[in-house]
Amino acid sequence: MRKLEAARKELNYLQGLITRKDEMGGDESDNRYMTMEDGSLSMEREQLSQMASRQITFIDHLEKAVMRIENKTYGICRVTGKLIDKARLRAVPHATLSIEAKMGITK
Fold first, then answer.
1. Quick one: 56 and 94 in the same domain?
2. What are phi and psi of 35, to 5 degrees?
C-alpha cells in the first residue's frame, strides 16, 4: 500500500512538471521561430510524459496486486500455480510469475 501511495504521489509530481513545461512552451503553432531552448523544453516534456506513462502502468500493476490480495490469489504463479518466492515479491510486489515461469517464457 505504501508503494502504491508513493507511486501516485510521484505521478502527481510528474504531471505537475508536465503542466508547468506546457505553460512555459508558449504558442507552438508557428514553428518558424522555434529556438534551441524550445527544442530542449519539448524534449524534457517528452521524457516527463514517458516517465508518467511508466508510472501509470506501475500503479495499474500495484492496484491489480491489491485485488489479488483481496481475492487471496496474491503470490501464486499464473503459470505453475505454485507460490512465488517471498524475495521476488519483495523486489517486485506486482509479480504474477515465479522466476521459473518467467525464465520459461523468455526462452
1. no
2. -100, 175
User: 16-69 pLDDT, tens per residue?
Assistant: 888 886 666 555 555 555 565 566 777 888 899 999 999 999 999 999 999 999
User: Which amino acid, 11?
Assistant: L
Question: What residue type is 61 in one-letter code?
Answer: H
Are residue 66 and residue 88 in the same domain, yes or no? no
Structural domains counted in the chain: 2
**Cα 92 to Cα 6, 12, 80, distances in angstroms:** 15, 22, 18
Give the closest residue to 3 by CA, choosing from 97, 99, 92: 92
Specify whether 22 is located in the same domain as 67: yes
Report the SS3 class of residue 83.
Answer: strand
